[in-house]
Amino acid sequence: MDQPTAAQMERSAHPSRTILIVDDEKEIAELLVNIVEKSGHKAISCTNGETALEIVKKGGVDLLITDLKMPGMSGIELIGQTRRINNEVEIIVITGYGTMEIFLEAIRSGVSDFILKPIDMEQFIHSINRVMEKKNLTESLIARTQQLLQAEKMATVGVLSTGIAHEINNPTTFIRTNLQLMSEYIKRMESKLDNLADPKTAESVKNILLKEFPDMIRDALKGTERIQKIVSGIKHYAHMGSDSFDEDVDIREVITQTINLVRAKLRKDIVITENYLNIKEIKGHFSKLEQVFVNLLINAADAINDKMVKLKTGGDRDYRGLIDVSATVIDGDEYEGGQSPDYLILTFFDNGGGIPDNKITKVFDPFFTTKPVGVGTGLGLYICYEIIKQHGGEITVQSDPEEGTAFIIRLPVVGAVKPGQEQPQEPRQ
Ligand SMILES: Nc1ncnc2c1ncn2[C@@H]1O[C@H](COP(=O)(O)OP(=O)(O)O)[C@@H](O)[C@H]1O
Ligand SMILES: [Mg+2]
Questions:
Q1: Fewest CB atoms within 10 Å of the CB: 56, 273, 304, 318?
Q2: CA-CA distance, 276 to 326, in Å (whole number)?
Q3: Is 152 in the pocket of ligand 1 (CB under 6 A)?
Q4: CB neighbour list of residue 366: distance below 8 Å, 6 or more residues apart
Q5: Distance between CA 170 and CA 191 in Å, rounded?
Q6: Which ligand sits nearest to residue 301's alpha carbon?
Q7: Strands 394-400 and 404-412
């Protein structure tokens, strides 16, 4: 099949629009429907606010054109109610009169344009086309942004796949080795089975069956567990996880799992250390937090790589790449007279090349990147910022070209149980 042309795609992305015209004078409403249809849009009309609202509720209206002064529900009321149920519908107001207050209220409700009575038809069509064009642009922009955000995520999935393959390969190898060993043992035991009357042979067979085999089976099961965990990590990451920010999250588990996934992509000589102090479970979104940590770790590794490339021509041969992840809970009891919630503070430090002062305020901006085209998208930190915000937290950065860079994340420990308020809990395994 032929690929659609850009123009065809553009058309299918913005199917013909439905315009609802509300005017208490039936003749005017019908006249306007006629004009709108001639200009290529679909139009419907009604003569009061109540009916209009019912139509809007059913959905499918792209543009509402309403008179202000109508018996029953006024235009302003209709606009307000419409906004409450639908934020996307565009609104144009037709009015024969207008006080400043009404204009202001209409503008506050997000009215796109005003048309004064008596209606100039040319101006009327021009206004509709302008508003629809704006709507098309906004929708394209939203769709494009979604695509780019997904692309950034898929890019990290690509980067991670090496790590994932490696992680799955290890346990698979030792499961295989154990199974091979077991089948060899079985062969060896075969010859001994006829000779079980001999106490020494019986002892050896017993040892194999009751000690060696259970050990091997236990190790192999551990391996399968490990594989299951990795696979569930990928499922999470590739967006098959839940959409809830209310999961009980053990931050150690998220960090360790992320480091496991990322490690194979990093240079072998980068040392990663983890420090945990006084950790509590938080409420959050496991896979989104994983996405944040993947971005931060890969950025850190890139910064270390950059520094290594520079030093090659410069000189400090003792430089070793280091990434340190630390997590600690700050007790809210000690702040604001005990009114403050508990916070989890996470620090991702790297001793890479740092961020120059004139760039540090831009790093969270979408599309800001210092990496070559095709390597950086500039969306990583923007996504981190958004995800942490969704958790009710914040992310900041400090950097020094000599020392390196630290990204600091503050997350509220929602629902944390404070000392003295503990509920009796089931013992954890
Ligand atoms: N740990 C870090 N050390 C030095 N610079 C960093 C670090 N993390 C991010 N940056 C800078 O911030 C920019 C934006 O990062 P990001 O939003 O993840 O996009 P990308 O990695 O695609 O460039 C990077 O290009 C880099 O210049
Ligand atoms: Mg990045």
A1: 318
A2: 6
A3: no
A4: 378, 379, 382
A5: 33
A6: 1
A7: antiparallel
CA 134 to chain centre: 27
What is the C-alpha to C-alpha distance for residues 66 and 63, in angstroms, rounded to an integer?
10
301 lines ligand 1 (CB under 6 A): no
CB contact set of 77 (below 8 Å; sequence gap of 6+): 49
- The average confidence (pLDDT) of the chain is 84
Q: What's the half-sphere exposure (Cβ side, CA atoms, 13 Å) at 328?
A: 7
Non-local (6+) Cβ contacts of 92 within 8 A are 63, 64, 65, 66, 111, 112, 113, 114, 115, 127, 128, 131
* DSSP label at residue 402: T
pTM score of the predicted model: 0.61
CA 236 from chain center: how many Å? 11
Query: Burial level of 292, CB count in 10 A (0-12/13-18/19+)?
Result: buried
The Cβ-side half-sphere exposure at 247, using a 13 Å CA radius, reads 16
CA 205/CA 191 separation, integer angstroms: 11
Ligand 2 centroid to Cα of residue 222, in Å, is: 34
**Closest to 19 measured CA to CA, from 48, 52, 54:** 52
Residue 364 Cβ < 6 Å to ligand 1: no
Residue 131 banded pLDDT, cuts 50, 70, 90:
very high
Ligand number nearest CA of 294 is 2
Q: Which atom of ligand 1 is nearest to the CA of 363?
A: 12
Q: What's the whole-number mean pLDDT along residues 13-20?
A: 76
* DSSP 8-state code for residue 210: I
- What ligand 1 atom has the least distance to the C-alpha of 364? 17
Nearest 10 degrees: CA dihedral of 352, 358, 364, 368?
A: -90
**Range of lowest pLDDT (132-136, 188-192, 300-304, 393-397):** 188-192
Closest Cα to atom 11 of ligand 1? 363
Name the one residue in this structure whose structure tokens are 């250390």.
273
As given in the structure block, the two tokens for residue 370 are 């210092």
Joined together, the tokens standing for residue 101 give 């207050």
DSSP string, 41-87: -EEEEESSHHHHHHHHHHS---EEEEES--SSS-HHHHHHHHHHH-S
